[in-house]
Inverse folding.
């Protein structure tokens, strides 16, 4: 006996927990009168339980480090695009040699 | 202390914070690798795909639209990369026949391993577009709406592919038992 496609969809939706209460009642009524559809629901439920229970395949432990090394070498520009802070600007200006000498000279004059 | 969310990690990552990228990697490496393995049935290829996915994600973080969820974006990259990998290989017959490894230990563990391999082999016999939806639903725990967002297809199409994919998988498993 063929299963009405509408109810085959409802069986799938029920398995996924995406069925409205009134659809659930409609499905149960249909299944009560249709052994083939009941068997189909059992098979499909079993298949989905099997799929959901399969173990997650883990990546090799070293992969994380390989990826981190790869991104660091692939795009070093991003390492330099961090937001510049006020202390960066301060050191950029006052950190240059001529400015440092001028500041030392000025300090010497003031102290003298 | 609460874990930083994806948005926070992405923002920090874009400012060059390597630890923030590591945070994203720790969170998504396993699901991305698992999805790649389920799509490709080959650990080496899954490893290469995972590496490419994170490299692409890192290089294109500037293009990430924060209105979407990060996992949708990275899973989309992952699935596109697996499809590229499948297209490059073009040796589907071999994929379905990865040798079954000898297992040691209790019967339950061996049976579970055999069952897992049988399902994986059957999964490789169904078309990529159906396999993709099954992987997202059953291995990455995505719901219809999330799958629709990741694949950029209507929810109705997600359901149709998922239901058809399950039916194909059921038939493939029945056929494998007859062999």
């Amino acid at each position: 006996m063929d299963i009405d496609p509408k109810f085959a969809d409802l069986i799938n939706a029920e398995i996924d927990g995406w069925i409205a209460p009134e659809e659930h009642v409609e499905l149960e009524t249909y299944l009560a009168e249709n052994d083939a559809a009941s068997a189909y629901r059992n098979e499909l439920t079993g298949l989905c339980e099997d799929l959901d229970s399969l173990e997650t395949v883990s990546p090799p432990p070293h992969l994380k480090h390989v990826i981190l090394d790869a991104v660091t070498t692939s795009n070093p520009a991003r390492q330099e695009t961090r937001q510049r802070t006020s202390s960066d600007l301060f050191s950029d200006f006052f950190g240059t040699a001529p400015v440092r000498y001028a500041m030392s000279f000025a300090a010497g004059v003031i102290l003298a | 202390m609460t874990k930083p969310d994806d948005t926070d990690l992405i923002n920090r990552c874009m400012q060059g914070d390597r630890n923030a990228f590591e945070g994203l990697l720790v969170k998504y490496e396993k699901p991305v690798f698992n999805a790649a393995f389920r799509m490709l049935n080959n650990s080496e290829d899954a490893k290469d795909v995972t590496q490419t996915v994170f490299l692409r994600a890192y290089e294109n973080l500037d293009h990430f639209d924060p209105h979407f969820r990060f996992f949708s974006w990275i899973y989309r990259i992952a699935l596109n990369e697996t499809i590229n990998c499948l297209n490059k290989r073009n040796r589907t017959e071999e994929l379905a026949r990865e040798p079954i490894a000898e297992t040691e230990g209790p019967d339950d563990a061996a049976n579970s391993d055999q069952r897992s391999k049988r399902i994986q082999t059957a999964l490789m016999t169904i078309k990529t577009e159906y396999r993709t939806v099954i992987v997202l639903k059953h291995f990455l725990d995505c719901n219809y709406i999330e799958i629709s967002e990741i694949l950029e297809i209507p929810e109705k199409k997600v359901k149709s592919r998922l239901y058809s994919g399950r039916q194909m998988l059921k038939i493939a498993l029945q056929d494998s038992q007859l062999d």
Remarks:
- The two ends of chain A are 108 Å apart (CA to CA).
- DSSP finds seven helices and no strands in chain A.
- Chain A has a mean pLDDT of 82.
